[in-house]
Amino acid sequence: MEYLNFLEDEDRDKLQLLMTLQLYNDQFLTQKKLIELTGLSKFLLEKYIAELNTEYPELAISEELYDELIYQPISNDTIQKIQHCYAQRSLKFRFFVEVLIEEKTINKFQDEQHIAKTTLYQIRNKVLSHLKKERITVQKNKLIGDEMKVRSIIFDIIAYFYFGEAFPFSKESEKNAQLLLQQLTNYFNLELTFFQKNKLALFIHIIQIRIKNRHTIKEDFCSINEKTQLTYHRQLLMIETALHPTMEQPTGNFKETNYLLLFLYVSDIFDIDLEINQILFTKNQAAAQELIDRLTTKFQITDTQKNQLYQAFLKKLLGLSIFKQSYTTFVDTAAYSYFAEVYFPLHKLILKFIRKEQFLLSLELSKSDQAKLYYDIIFSTLSLLEPAQLGKPINIYIDFSHGIAYSEYIRQSLLRFRDLNITIQKKFNNDTHISLSDYRLKEAQCQQIIWKQPPTPSDWAKFADLVIELREVENEKNEVF
Fold first, then answer.
1. What does each C-alpha distance from 61 to 28, 32, 82, 354 come to in angstroms?
2. What is the spatial distance between Cα 390 and Cα 309, in angstroms, rounded to a whole number?
3. pLDDT value of position 480
4. So what's the pLDDT on residue 352?
5. What is the pLDDT of residue 387?
C-alpha cells in the first residue's frame, strides 16, 4: 500500500525526498542525481529542501562544491516523527479517520474543517481512489466489503503513521478502548510490553468502532472449550458487554469476543486454549504440519520441540489468514544472506516452503508479507532449537600461553557468537576448524588466529568473518553430498 498517499501532496513529496536522502546517508550525492532519483524538477527540489530546513533545522541540508549535497544522516526515528507530523495536518488522513472510520457526517466534517464543498469532494475522491486500489468499497461514506480486510486496512494505515503515538480517534473512542484494555489486562493478568499494549489498544479501537457502526464479523473463527468457559466465564461475559455496550444482555454468540481472544493468541499476548474452526482453517493446520515434517526430515528435533514449533507456526499462518496485516519492518530481504551463510540448510528449506507451498501460494502474499513470514519462521525456529541441531558446528580450540584465566575470558566472550553455531573444544583434534592463541601452533593444519593483545572490535569482526567463510565451505560440502 502507498501509505504516503494519505498525506497532502507536497508533504508526501517531501517525505519521499527525505527517504531517498536516507538511502544515501554518508554517501556522495549530487543535486543532479537526486533530481533523477525523485523525478522532481530543480525548482521543486530546491523549494522542498528549503521548507524541510525551515521545519527541521537539524537536517541541515546544503549544497556544496561540485553540486554535492551535504546533510546530517537521516534516521528512521526522524522519518517516523515527520510522517506522524504530516499525518496530523493532512485533511485526506483526517477524512479517512473521521468520516470513513468513525462515520462522522460529511457535512459536519466540512463545517469543522472550514473548507469549501469543492475542496471536500476533491479530498474524498483522492482518498476513495487510494482505497479502491486495495479493493475496498465505499458506499454512502462507509467502508464496505470483507470485514476482515476492512479492519486490516484500517489497522495498517493508522499503525503506519501513529504507532507509538496517541491514536487519532475521538475522546469517546479513546475512553472506551482504554477501559477494555485495562479490563483485559486485569482479567488475564497480562504483562504487556509497551508495543504490545499499543498494538492491542489499536486493535480494540477498531473492533469497538466497527461494532458501534454495525459492521460486525460473520465468521466463527474459533470457540472456547468447556474447561476454559468455566475458568473465564465471568470475564468473557464482561468482554462481550464491553464490545456491545448497547446490548441489553449477551446473546451467547461471542464471535467478536472470540475474534479478540484469537488476536491475543496469535500475537503471543495471551496463551489461551482455543478450538480453531476446522472447516475454515484446515489448510493452515496442514501447512504448519507440513513445515514440521520438512524440518524433521532435515534436522534432529525432539517431540516437545515439534509441538512448540507447530504452535508457533500455526499462530503465524492464522495471522496471515485472519488479520492480514501488512508490515513495514522486518521486510527487507537483504538480511537473508546472513542466514544463508550461517544456517544454509534451514534458510533454503524455509525459503522453498514460503515460495512453493500451495496454501501460501493461494494467499497471494506480497514480497513484504513473504519476507515477514520468513523472519517469523526462522526466528521461531532459532529460538526453540539449539544451533548444533541445525548443522555441523565450527569447532574452536583456545589455548593462550598466559594460562587458564586468559583462555576462559576468550571462551566467555565467544558466547556472544552462539548464533554462528560454534562449539569450544577442550582438546585439539582433527575436527578443529580454528585455533585461537597468542602463538602459532606448528602442528595445526586448521585456520589459526593469533591475538597478541586482548581482542579489539576489529579482531572480533575478523573472527566472525572467518567463521562464516568456514561455514560456507561446510555448506558447499553438504550441497555436494
1. 13, 15, 16, 42
2. 14
3. 46
4. 95
5. 80
pLDDT attached to residue 252: 60
Let me know if 18 is exposed, middle or buried by CB neighbors in 10 A (0-12, 13-18, 19+): buried
- The DSSP line for 384-418 is HS-GGGGSPPEEEEE--TT-HHHHHHHHHHHGGGG
Rg (CA), the chain: 28
Residues 6+ apart with CB under 8 A from 396: 414, 422, 423, 424, 425, 432, 433, 434, 435, 436
Q: CA 343 to CA 371: how far, in whole Å?
A: 17
Cα–Cα distance for residue pair 95/83, rounded to 1 Å? 17
Check residue 361 and give its pLDDT. 92
pTM summary value: 0.84
Beta bridge partners of 422: 394
CA-to-CA distance for 347 and 374, rounded, in angstroms?
Answer: 9
Q: What distances in angstroms separate CA 189 from CA 11, 183, 186, one per listed residue?
A: 43, 10, 5
**Cell 465471568, residue?**
234
> Which residue stretches of the chain have pLDDT < 50?
480-481
Tracing cell 507509538 back to the chain, one arrives at 164
Distance CA 46, CA 67 (A): 13
Beta-carbon contacts of residue 323 (< 8 Å; ≥ 6 apart): 148, 151, 152, 155, 263, 266
Q: 303 forms bridges with which residues in the sheet?
A: none
